[in-house]
Amino acid sequence: MNQTLYERFSQLQEELVAIRRDLHMHPEVGHTEERTPAFVAEYLRNLGIEVRTGVGGRGVVGTLKGGKPGKTVALRADFDALPIQDEKDVPYKSTVPGVMHACGHDLHTATLLGVAKVLSEVRDELTGTVVFLHQHAEETTPGGADFMIQDGCLDGVDVLYGAHVMSDQPLGTVRVMEGYASSAQDDFEITIYGKGGHGAAPHTTIDPLVTASQLVVNFQQILSRRVNPMRSGVITVGSFQSGEATNVIPDKAVLKGTVRTYDPEVRDLIEEAMERLTRTTCEGNGATYEFGYVRDCPSIQNDTNETARIAKVASSLFGSDQVRYGEPMSGSEDFAYYTQHVKASYFIIGGGNPEIGADYPHHHPKFNVDERSIQYIGKTFIGAVLDFLGDTAEQENTAIHA
For residue 238, what pLDDT is reported? Predict the structure, then answer.
């Protein structure tokens, strides 16, 4: 049955490209999506798939029950866009000013709809259930994944697979990641309060700009002197705002930035160390402060066995020379929330192609990917579903632990 389904998915390429381009022309940012979830729900209903809308806010969950009882496998795609002006010169350029699909979520969504179509055509032959998770608001904080989980999207799910197309990876390549697959994301905002005054009389002031500058430098010592070199982390100050005039010492300074880690212990260490450094530096300079630290999503934790399954399926489809185990993403992804509840594996599909301008980084105004990557994601999804549902060893293991 596998080969037949792969061939059928190949036949859908033109339809799926049209869907992707339609979504690309009508992007919606996280937590405001209306047209996209409505389109997804209607498409799934037309396939005879059970659909639940408004999941966790604006998510859509489709459930395809096979002709025979068995395990349940879920597939996830995200469908939100970004507040970025589309600067590509293509016929399917975004029609919404200041909003575009600059990360590939439109392609993810079109691909998963194609997978649903193919599998729905053989539902009577399936042993088990396939759940299609169409998630809203992946790009925002808080993201849609946790809200969908709280609303029951993973109820009864045994395993979950997710994928991301990447413009910095060549078309046709597959990267799997064992263990950590993305970084955790935290954001901070620190306000330093001093005493303003004339620039020619600094001794009469408490300079928040100098204090904040010390913090920018001192934060990096947390990584170099507090974190085990065998582990890793990033502290990036992305915004430093203080004062306007050349001859005035301001009364406050504001630092904003992000922290990225993999290990939960390192995550805890960095937050505690940043707060302590802020406190002691401000006390030493006579300043006061407000320390704001918001934890977003954790790290993706890929299951070893399910990652091996993805590697096996992709190798059989595209050749072992196109599949490799790689390092985790330095960016964050709220797919991580799912991995806290079920076994899962998240993998990367190459969509880069400089010949068509598909080599700009993600979140760039000219971002694009080679649409043939639809075939690589879709066929890997189909192969993983069939392999998992047909894995008798896995069924026996599930029964033992039930």
Answer: 97
Bridge partners of 159, per DSSP, are 73, 343
Q: Which residues of the chain have pLDDT under 50?
A: 395-402
Answer for the pair 1, 114: CB distance below 8 angstroms, yes or no: no
- 246 Ramachandran zone, left/alpha/beta (phi>0; psi -120 to 50): alpha
Q: Where are the beta strands (DSSP E) in 145-299?
A: 159-170, 174-176, 179-180, 184-193, 197-198, 233-241, 248-249, 252-261, 288-295
For residue 71, give the amino acid letter.
K
Residue 392 has a pLDDT of 53
**Residue 348: beta bridge partners?**
164, 175
Question: With contact defined as beta carbons under 8 Å apart, do 65 and 148 qualify?
Answer: no
Quote the pLDDT of residue 1.
Answer: 83
The Cα angle at residue 345 between residues 342 and 350, in degrees rounded to 5: 155
Location of structure tokens 């330093």: 192
Residues whose CB falls within 8 Å of the CB of residue 2, separated by 6 or more in sequence, listed in order: 382, 383, 386
Nearest-Å Rg of the Cα atoms of the chain is 24
Query: Quick one: which of 101, 131, 86 has its CA closest to 33?
Result: 101
Q: What is the pLDDT of residue 141?
A: 86
Q: How buried is residue 354: exposed, middle or buried, by Cβ count under 10 Å (0-12/13-18/19+)?
A: exposed
Give the active site residues. 80, 138
For 83, how many CA atoms within 13 A lie in the half-sphere containing its CB?
Answer: 5
Average confidence score pLDDT of the chain? 96
Rounded CA-CA distance 63/396 in Å is 24
Residue position matching structure tokens 């970025």: 84
So what's the pLDDT on residue 400?
A: 36
Q: What is the DSSP letter of 11?
A: H
For tokens 């096996």, the residue is 312
Instruction: Identify the burial level of 291 via C-beta atoms within 10 angstroms of its C-beta, where 0-12 means exposed, 13-18 middle and 19 or more buried.
Output: middle
User: Which residues, listed in sequence order, are joined to residue 291 by a DSSP beta bridge?
Assistant: 190
For the entire predicted model, the pTM comes to: 0.92
- For 112-125, the pLDDT digits (tens) are 999 999 999 999 99
Per-residue buried b or exposed e for 58-87, using 16+ beta carbons within 10 Å of the residue's own CB: bbbbbbbbbeeebbbbbbbbbbbbbebebe
Burial of 190 (0-12, 13-18, 19+ CB in 10 A): buried
Query: What pLDDT was estimated at residue 402?
Result: 36
- Collapsing DSSP to helix, strand or coil, 147 comes out as helix
Q: What angle do CA 372, 373, 378 make, to 5 degrees?
A: 110
